[in-house]
Design a protein that fits this description.
Length: 537
């Protein structure tokens, strides 16, 4: 049935998804038929301040308000209607990290993002204590490291949350969190769909010995599963979101989720034996498990779907940043010689050139796309590094191909643990992210790298915020389906546009040759990390 978008805007039936990603904050308005009505975005970058990667809360709100204002203007221009009422709102953001607040709601230290490799001691101790992998990114690792560092702010912590949880709290007044995002804060018990009580008791005992008597359960936000109502937009929240003051309060709020949860939702990858890959500033793969892992792996996170099902997650701190940096440099050159190519056109031109004229192994070149440290390869600090031998086939096609190869390299190393050591397989692996906006090229390289078919959907470049909007719609329509998986199958992805690339044996062999060179050269990258950063703030 064809919907009338103007009527849905007037009647307040649309839903809003907001996602705070690593390089962009985006707001997407979606109609009841799950199509995008309008969107707005704001570009931002993390800053390295006093040794920590961070974003300021001031820019968080400036970015959200700018994105919403752009979306609202697009609605007015396209449909001639003012956006004053929204049925449901969902907030998503990059997972993990550390946002501790005191009892007055004041942030105690600047936001420490997932990108910080500063909690190795805490992560190792907690992994041993729990017999469960605690990555450096997780909120509990950041908290415990602050305790080990004897940071004075810890005794004042009253509430600890993620970026999505913080924004949701400010919009709704509710200190809750989607269970997928919660699983990046503290281990989840699959049976109770809550934090693991045994592990919380162990943590409380551990910190009590160190002189801290708080209960971790009292600091963490309450987990909610997809479809549960997570409060409503307050008057204060509406004014904070829409600076014009026109937006009405009362919108249903969906549980705030991490970008992993929205990625799974936006690619219909929440069922067992499905998986997805998100490629952005960081990269991560999510495989919904149909069997437990045989042992604890430091490079495999155990998180959950938005409904609490166990997921094996391979997370890398670096993916597209180095590609983007080189493209920026090449854009400067093209402008210098008078080219009128847009950035997107330049990406397409160079990616296709790499695919058509590059050697299968990228000509013997090697690149380490480490803007920050990388846990999977045990590199503590970021030092992007390009290496070639005297006999490498050094040309533009191979250079660009090497950049794409290196974007996926840490993910390849982590995924090999799942596929080769744990014998975990999937029925479908769906990729999303801006790297796939140029058709086929990065998709085929990823298929060859992982030696598995890779599917990309038509919304590959916009999956996250749209996925959050779908979770908000599911909150309104939970009674219409027995589960999120069924809702996605029966109402959202009825006839999705998609394309699949299967591994090319020659491409697989070429990427395998590249990754062997990559591994052999890692000591050079580790050494490069010792070079002082002269411009470090």
């Amino acid at each position: 049935m064809t919907i009338n978008v103007n009527e849905e805007i007037i009647d307040g039936k649309t839903v809003l998804g907001i996602e705070l990603g690593s390089t962009r904050i985006k707001a997407v308005l979606v109609a009841t038929d799950h199509t995008v009505v309008a969107s707005g975005s704001y570009a931002w970058e993390n800053q390295l301040v006093d040794g920590y990667w961070t974003y300021s809360l001031e820019e968080v709100w400036h970015g959200i308000q700018s994105s919403y204002a752009e979306l609202k203007a697009a609605v007015q221009e396209k449909y001639g209607e003012s956006l004053v009422k929204i049925a449901a709102i969902g907030v998503s953001a990059m997972m993990h990290g550390y946002l501790p607040f005191d009892q007055d709601g004041q942030l105690l230290v600047p936001f420490r993002t997932w990108r910080n490799n500063s909690t190795a001691e805490a992560a190792t101790q907690l992994t041993q204590l729990f017999n469960f992998n605690i990555p450096q990114r997780w909120s509990i690792a950041h908290l415990y490291q602050a305790i080990l560092n004897q940071e004075t702010h810890v005794k004042s912590v009253d509430f600890l949350t993620t970026l999505a949880g913080y924004v949701h709290w400010q919009l709704s007044g509710q200190k809750v969190i989607g269970i997928g995002d919660a699983s990046g804060m503290f281990p989840i018990d699959e049976a109770s769909l809550n934090y693991d009580e045994d592990k919380m008791e162990k943590f409380n005992h551990l910190i009590k010995v160190l002189g801290y008597d708080f209960d971790i359960a009292q600091l963490l936000p309450r987990p909610l599963i997809a479809g549960e109502v997570a409060g409503h937009l307050t008057n204060e929240g509406a004014r904070r979101l829409d600076m014009s003051g026109e937006l009405q309060s009362g919108s249903v709020m969906a549980p705030p989720e991490g970008d992993a949860g929205t990625g799974m939702t936006g690619t219909n990858s929440v069922k067992k034996r499905t998986g997805n890959i998100s490629a952005g500033t960081s990269a991560f793969s999510m495989v919904v498990l149909d069997q437990p892992l045989a042992k604890v792996h430091r490079d495999i996170d155990l998180v959950t779907t938005p409904e609490g099902a166990p997921v094996a997650m391979v997370h890398t701190n670096n993916c597209t940043s180095d590609v983007n940096a080189w493209m920026k440099l090449l854009t400067e050159f093209s402008q210098l010689i008078g080219s009128t190519f847009s950035v997107d056109q330049l990406y397409a031109k160079l990616f296709n050139h790499a695919a058509e004229d590059g050697d299968e192994d990228a000509g013997g070149l090697v690149n380490y796309a480490y803007l920050s440290g990388e846990n999977i390869t045990n590199v503590e600090e970021g030092r992007p590094l390009f290496v070639r031998t005297p006999n490498s086939h050094f040309n533009l096609a191979n250079f660009i191909k090497t950049q794409i190869f290196s974007a996926f390299a840490p993910l390849k190393i982590g995924m090999d643990i799942l596929t080769k050591e744990e014998q975990i397989s999937t029925d479908v692996l769906i990729a999303q992210g801006g790297l796939f906006r140029t058709p086929v090229v990065a998709q085929q390289i990823l298929a060859d790298a992982l030696n598995t078919p890779i599917t990309v959907m038509a919304n590959a470049g916009e999956g996250g915020p749209w996925g959050m909007a779908i979770l908000a719609q599911y909150t309104l329509n939970r009674d219409s389906a027995s589960s999120l998986a069924n809702y996605l199958d029966e109402q959202v992805f009825v006839s999705p546009e998609r394309s699949t690339c299967t591994p090319n044996p020659v491409g697989v062999q070429g990427y395998d040759a590249f990754i062997e060179r990559y591994k052999l050269g890692l000591p050079a990258e580790v050494t490069a990390a010792k070079i002082p950063d002269a411009h470090k703030k």
